[in-house]
């Protein structure tokens, strides 16, 4: 007996939960709350596309963050593949952070 396919909503929740465990080592807030994830797309066969940015184009840990996002989302049961697309358009600003992140970092 095979398992029922995972719903897109459930998969999206699991992806979001994993993205909330990825941190920029220089900032004590996760990339989701920082507003670095612009879009999560779930395509055919549960192939996941993630459009994201970094706080600065010259981020010295960019490769590490992208690799961590890829690994954590790829390890979710049901995900067939992951494509992480790094963009700086639009450029990240503090306004993209959640209220929680702004509070944590003392911007409120």
UniProtKB/TrEMBL annotation:
Note one Pfam family from the annotation.
Answer: FeS_assembly_P
Which parts of the sequence belong to the MIP18 family-like domain? Answer: 12-84
Q: Which InterPro entries match?
A: Fe-S_Maturation_MIP18 (IPR052339), FSCA_dom_sf (IPR034904), MIP18-like (IPR002744)
In terms of SUPFAM superfamilies, this protein maps to: Fe-S cluster assembly (FSCA) domain-like
Annotated PANTHER family:
FE-S PROTEIN MATURATION AUXILIARY FACTOR YITW (PTHR42831)
**Protein's UniProt name:** FeS assembly SUF system protein
Q: What is the lineage of its organism?
A: Bacteria, Pseudomonadati, Bacteroidota, Chitinophagia, Chitinophagales
